[in-house]
Design a protein that fits this description.
Shape of chain B: globular
Strand order of the largest sheet of chain B: 1-2-3
Structural class of chain A: mainly beta
Helix content of chain A: under 10%
Oligomer: heterodimer
CATH topology of one domain in chain B: 30s Ribosomal Protein S19, Chain A
Strand content of chain B: 15-25%
Radius of gyration of chain B: 15 Å
Strand content of chain A: 35-45%
Largest sheet of chain A: 6 strands, mixed
CATH architecture of the largest domain in chain A: Beta Barrel
Number of helices of chain B: 2
Shape of chain A: elongated
Order of helices and strands of chain B: HHEEEE
Strand order of the largest sheet of chain A: 12-11-10-9-14-13
Radius of gyration of chain A: 19 Å
Largest sheet of chain B: 3 strands, mixed
Largest interface: A-B, 44 and 30 residues
CATH class of one domain in chain B: Alpha Beta
Number of domains of chain A: 2
CATH topology of the largest domain in chain A: Elongation Factor Tu (Ef-tu), domain 3
Number of helices of chain A: 2
Structural class of chain B: alpha+beta
Distance between the termini of chain B: 40 Å
Chain lengths: ~170, ~90
C-alpha cells in the first residue's frame, strides 16, 4: 500500500496576486483541500491549500508560502500528494483504487495471475484490470465477492476465483 | 398501440440462445457476445456477459436496474483511466 496518494496538480498561476490554478483528481473535487498539507512528488515542499473559488477546469487556490504570481508560476506542473492516512476509513468491502492498484492477483490454488493495473467502472460494477507476464493482454476481472473472495491489503494480494474462460 | 410497443425489444437471437444455455448449465462463465445493440431483458439478470468493444470483451454483470438498456452502453469503446486519488471501489 502506497504511503502517499496523488490528489491533484498545479496547472499554473491564476491572476496576479499569487493564487494558483489547481486541478483536482479527487472523486469530489473540493475534497482536495481537506487532505492537506499536500506535498510535492519528492516531498521537499508542502503546502496548506485553501480553495478560493471554482474556475474553468479546476479551482483557484491559495497555498501557504506562495504570495506572488512568479512563485505560483514556478509551481506549474507540480503534482500534489496527500498522506494515505489522511483519507477517511472506509466500510467493509469498499476500497480505495490507490490501495488496490499494484496488488498481486492469485487464483484459489495460489498461482499468480498478474497484478492489478487499474480499477475501472463502466456503469456495470467495478472491474479490476489485471496484467501479467502470462497474459497476452490485460484481463478485466469483475470486482464481486464471487470473483474476488479475498482482498488482503496487508499481504498485498487478492485471491481471485474468476469465471470460466476469463484468463484464457 | 405505438409501433415500439407491439414490436417489443430487439435482441439478437444468438444472445438469447447463449443466455438460455448458460442458465441451464448453471456454470459460472462469461457469455461472450458481439451484439452491442441487443436490449437487456429480465431473463439476463444475474448473468455475466462479455460485451465486445471492438478490441476485447468487457465483463458486464447484469442487474435489475439495467433492464431495457443496450449492452453497448456498458462497454465503452474508448479508454480513459484518469487518476486513482481518493476514488473508491465497492465489492458487491
Amino acid at each position: 500500500m502506497a504511503d502517499r496518494v496523488c490528489v491533484g496538480a498545479i496547472a499554473g498561476s491564476f491572476g496576479v496576486k499569487g493564487e494558483v490554478r489547481l486541478k483536482s483528481f479527487c472523486a469530489e473535487p473540493e475534497d482536495i483541500a481537506t487532505y492537506g498539507p499536500l506535498s510535492s512528488e519528492d516531498g521537499a515542499a508542502s503546502w496548506e491549500v485553501r480553495l478560493t473559488r471554482p474556475v474553468k477546469a479546476g479551482f483557484a487556490a491559495r497555498l501557504t508560502g506562495v504570495a506572488t504570481k512568479e512563485a505560483a508560476d514556478a509551481l506549474r506542473g507540480t503534482r500534489l500528494y496527500a498522506p494515505r492516512d489522511r483519507l477517511p476509513a472506509l466500510p467493509d468491502d469498499e476500497f480505495y483504487h490507490a490501495d488496490l492498484i499494484g496488488l498481486t492477483v492469485v487464483d484459489t490454488g495460489g498461482a499468480e495471475l498478474g497484478r492489478v493495473k487499474a480499477v475501472l467502472n463502466h456503469g456495470a460494477g467495478d472491474l479490476l484490470e489485471v496484467a501479467g507476464k502470462g497474459l497476452k493482454q490485460p484481463v478485466l476481472l469483475p470486482f464481486t465477492k464471487a470473483a474476488v473472495p479475498t482482498v488482503d491489503l496487508t499481504a498485498g494480494r487478492i485471491v481471485a476465483d474468476p469465471p470460466e474462460g476469463l484468463f484464457e | 398501440m405505438s409501433r415500439s410497443v407491439w414490436k417489443g425489444p430487439f435482441v439478437d437471437s444468438y444472445v438469447l440462445k447463449k443466455a438460455e444455455k448458460s442458465r441451464e448449465s448453471g456454470r459460472n462463465e462469461v457469455i461472450k457476445i458481439w451484439s452491442r445493440r441487443s436490449t437487456i431483458l429480465p431473463q439476463f439478470v444475474g448473468l455475466t456477459f462479455g460485451v465486445y468493444n471492438g478490441q476485447k470483451h468487457i465483463p458486464v454483470n447484469v442487474t435489475e436496474d439495467m433492464i431495457g438498456q443496450k449492452f453497448g452502453e456498458y462497454s465503452p469503446t474508448r479508454t480513459y483511466y484518469g487518476h486513482a486519488a481518493d476514488k473508491k471501489a465497492k465489492r458487491k
